[in-house]
Amino acid sequence: MTEAETPACRLCLVIPSGLAAGEALAVFAEQLAAALEAGDVACVLLRTGGLDDRAARGAARALGPVAQARDVAFLVEDRPELTRESGADGLHLSGGEPAVARLRETIGPEAIVGVACGVSRHAAMLAGEAGADYVAFEGDEAEVKDLLSWWQALMTLPCVALGGVTLENAAELARAGADFLALEEAAWEHPDGPGAAVEAFAARLAEADR
């Protein structure tokens, strides 16, 4: 693939479980909508750690349609049954053996399955062999950059820079080989709001493509 044919790095928005619970959920849904309308976002990932079943179900039902109405994929972390019940587009596995084929029996054959691999090359290879749709690397910034470059040199399966993504390192992570940058704190803690964060990251990624 030539440089001109290489797809641009895109954004994913990661929703921390603390923002997806309680009475503020409706307010947060409006913030999510504003973020998705501010620029190109490929997917939204709902963190579910710390949420009980009722809270996780409520968050998925409230936030999934916000993403999907804007043609943005909605993924749920670690809960295959909720992924199926809520009509989410896919499942993100935060760790463990990626039994992708078995999971697809629950969530459907067309659903997205992604696997977080930390900084383990072995885990990434296993996830790819198991049929994952993407792998995500998270850890020390220098090590993640090295992993992104290594993965892009060997594989066609998309890779995600997950955790620690900032406006300052976004272009470097994209140039290292990230197909997607996952924004968590950098999106929701932006002083001018998540919409401004998406605009700023989109501009930074556009610069990285030049």
Notes on the structure:
The protein has 210 residues and is an alpha/beta fold. The chain has an 8-stranded parallel barrel, surrounded by 7 helices. The radius of gyration is 16 Å and the shape is globular. It has a single domain, classed as TIM Barrel. Helices cover 44% and strands 18% of the residues. The protein has helices spanning 25-36, 53-68, 80-86, 100-107, 121-130, 141-154, 170-176, 185-188, 194-208; strands at residues 10-15, 41-46, 73-77, 90-93, 112-116, 134-137, 159-162, 180-183. Helix 1 (25-36) packs parallel to helix 2, helix 1 (25-36) runs parallel beside helix 9 (194-208) and helix 7 crosses helix 9.
Average pLDDT over all residues: 93
User: Number of DSSP helices?
Assistant: 9
In the sheet with the most strands, the strands line up as 1-2-3-4-5-6-7-8
**Main beta-sheet strand count, sense and barrel state:** 8 strands, parallel, barrel
Rg calculated over all Cα atoms: 16 Å
Helicity, as a percent range: 40-55%
Indicate the CATH class. Answer: Alpha Beta
Class by SSE composition: alpha/beta
Give start-end ranges of low-pLDDT stretches.
Answer: 1-6
User: How many independent structural domains?
Assistant: 1
CATH H-level superfamily title? Aldolase class I
Number of strands: 8
Molecular shape: globular
What is the H/E string?
Answer: EHEHEHEHEHEHEHEHH
How far is it from the N-terminal to the C-terminal residue, by CA? Answer: 17 Å
CATH topology heading: TIM Barrel
Q: Percent of residues in beta strands?
A: 15-25%
Any guess at the CATH architecture? Alpha-Beta Barrel
